[in-house]
Design goal:
The structure holds two protein chains of two kinds. Chain A is built from six helices and no strands. Chain A is an all-alpha fold. Chain A is extended and about 55 Å long. In chain A, 23% of the residues are buried. Chain B folds into two domains: 30 residues, no CATH class; 98 residues, Orthogonal Bundle (Helix Hairpins), CATH 1.10.287. In chain B, 42% of the residues are buried. The N and C termini of chain B lie far apart (52 Å). The radius of gyration of chain B is 21 Å and the shape is elongated. Chain B is an all-alpha fold. The chains are: A mainly alpha, B mainly alpha. At the A-B interface, helix 1, helix 2, helix 3, helix 4 and helix 5 of A face helix 1, helix 3, helix 4 and helix 5 of B.
Chain lengths: 162, 134
């Protein structure tokens, strides 16, 4: 049953990602990204990371992708694709890098072949993650607020008319 | 299960008799390797999007896809190693929260740059934005 759900969610996520790669219109690409993120939410719930799943829906799907959609719709950005392959020989660099990446992946898979079975304790609830976040990781959390403040000021400065 | 099956097939190529039985057996096992495989594929698709597309908005979306792949990796490793004592129980979750926050800030700044760029140049194609290339 769990394998079935994994295959379904992973398939939806991969279809969304490939659709994002193939679409010309950025509006449809953003909707494909939304599909991928919704499917990843199901995978997070399968991995007992409930709080991360909620955060994924609220922030990623609800804020970031909607921000993309706002920009695309407000400025009426259409598809711009005019293939100019000026450096076609660089295409052949993809092969060695792909081999390196697949080799790394197989190496990692071989390292964890023994498959540690997950224990039954439920982790990832809001209380546990929040307790950790506000005690052990308090300083990075506060520094994150500084980062967000910098992002707000930067967005206001960048988006204003001169 | 998928990667287990792949690895089983790769291991059992010499003795051809048990290959498909091993494939089916491995397909029914559930492991961390599937999540690593899915994360790997999402990362590869994201990198392909960054490298091949010309629309700067789609490049941003591909970057978000790469960050999502990293998040999935963190969550999977946290889930499967929580009791082994090598990692803190919620370290992956906390790190994922930080990644999401940084991704939000990055999206805000990047879209602000896109808006300013589109207002000045009326284009979002990255090879037409080449004033710094002279």
């Amino acid at each position: 049953m769990e394998q079935l759900f994994f295959v379904i969610f992973a398939g939806i996520a991969l279809i969304g990602a490939v659709n994002l790669l193939l679409r010309r219109n950025p509006l449809y690409a953003a909707l494909s990204l939304l599909t991928t993120m919704a499917a990843l939410t199901g995978l997070y719930i399968m991995l007992k990371a409930y709080f991360i799943a909620v955060i994924q829906v609220i922030i990623y799907a609800g804020a970031i992708v909607v921000l993309f959609l706002f920009v695309i719709m407000l400025f009426n950005i259409r598809a711009v694709e005019r293939q100019t392959d000026r450096r076609g020989y660089l295409k052949w660099l993809a092969l060695p890098f792909a081999i390196i990446l697949i080799g790394q992946f197989l190496y990692i898979v071989r390292l964890f072949e023994e498959n540690p079975t997950p224990v039954g304790t439920e982790i990832g609830f809001t209380e546990a993650v929040g307790r950790k976040l506000f005690t052990a990781y308090l300083l990075p959390f506060e520094l994150t607020s500084v980062l967000i403040l910098a992002a707000i000021i930067g967005a206001v400065v960048l988006a204003q008319k001169e | 299960m998928v990667t287990e099956a792949m690895w089983t097939v790769l291991q059992q190529v010499p003795n051809q008799a048990r290959t498909w039985q091993g494939f089916i057996d491995a397909l029914l096992k559930k492991g961390i390797n599937d999540f690593i495989l899915l994360s790997f594929l999402l990362f590869a698709i994201g990198v392909a999007g960054v490298l091949t597309r010309r629309n700067i908005l789609i490049i941003f979306m591909s970057i978000e896809l790469i960050l999502n792949a990293a998040n999935l990796n963190f969550i999977a490793f946290t889930r499967y190693w929580q009791m082994s004592g090598r990692l803190s129980e919620h370290m992956g979750h906390v790190f994922t929260i930080f990644i999401i926050v940084v991704a939000a800030a990055e999206a805000v700044i990047g879209l602000g740059i896109v808006i300013a760029l589109y207002r000045n140049r009326q284009t979002v194609a990255i090879d037409e934005i080449d004033l710094l290339k002279w």
